[in-house]
Write a structure and sequence with these properties.
The chain is an all-alpha fold and 226 residues long. The chain is 78% helix and 0% strand. Helix 7 runs antiparallel to helix 9 and helix 9 packs antiparallel against helix 10.
Length: 226
């Protein structure tokens, strides 16, 4: 892989790596050492990095070659990245923007109310995925059976794409705040767009990789019991 320096130096590359708590240098060797020391497959990371670079769905055929446990680990770490890093960063910049415009400003009130509602919905969505979909998959992998009355088809049917709701909030801000150069507002837009793009890729990994892999696992295990 001849572009590891680019992977580490590029913002999108570091976004993928940072959810694994990578804060190393920008040279090629530290990334390789970090991945080796932490049991992270560098090829797996590179596939996701390319998706961020092109703002497109990752190569699902390539991702299907990796262990289901690795896919689940990535999805769980991504959830933590949203809740522990991205969401707090957005909230901090909303607070700073509110200090500039005033808490009673209509745009601030709209932003606070709607982002808080979005956050609550996203937290509930993540909890539901991890409690049912991910737990079901992990139990199948470890025990060959799930204690839940659950099938991955439930996950597929109920799965919502949370990036679409962010589009509405972004549209409101861009339509109602024109030529605003203050840093907090620019950071809010930047972080919301980043979260939207990340959720788009995240959802595609769940829909196009995790669901087919777990569905196949369910069929294999079912055939063994008949």
């Amino acid at each position: 892989m001849n572009n590891l320096n680019e992977l580490s130096n590029c913002g999108n590359g570091r976004i993928v790596l940072n959810r694994y708590h990578y804060f190393g240098g920008l040279s090629e060797q530290p990334i390789m050492e970090f991945c080796e020391d932490n049991g992270i497959n560098l090829e797996f990371i590179h596939i996701l990095w390319e998706a961020f670079q092109t703002n497109s769905i990752p190569d699902t055929q390539l991702l299907m070659q990796f262990d289901t446990a690795m896919i689940i680990e990535y999805l769980e770490k991504t959830h933590a990245y949203y809740l522990d890093k991205l969401i707090p960063e957005i909230e901090l910049n909303i607070f700073r923007f509110a200090q500039l415009l005033g808490i009673e400003h209509p745009i601030i009130k709209h932003l606070i109310i709607h982002f808080d509602l979005y956050k609550q919905d996203l937290v509930a969505h993540i909890q539901d995925e991890e409690l049912f979909g991910f737990t079901h998959a992990k139990q199948l992998l470890i025990n060959g059976v799930s204690s839940l009355n659950y099938k991955i088809a439930h996950f597929e049917i109920e799965h919502e794409h949370k990036e679409e709701q962010l589009g509405e909030l972004l549209h409101f801000l861009k339509s109602n705040v024109s030529e605003c150069e203050v840093l907090p507002f620019k950071m809010i837009l930047s972080k919301l767009e980043l979260l939207q793009r990340d959720l788009f890729i995240h959802s595609s990994v769940e829909d196009e990789v995790l669901v087919p892999k777990v569905r196949l696992l369910e069929r294999v295990l079912l055939s063994r019991h008949h």
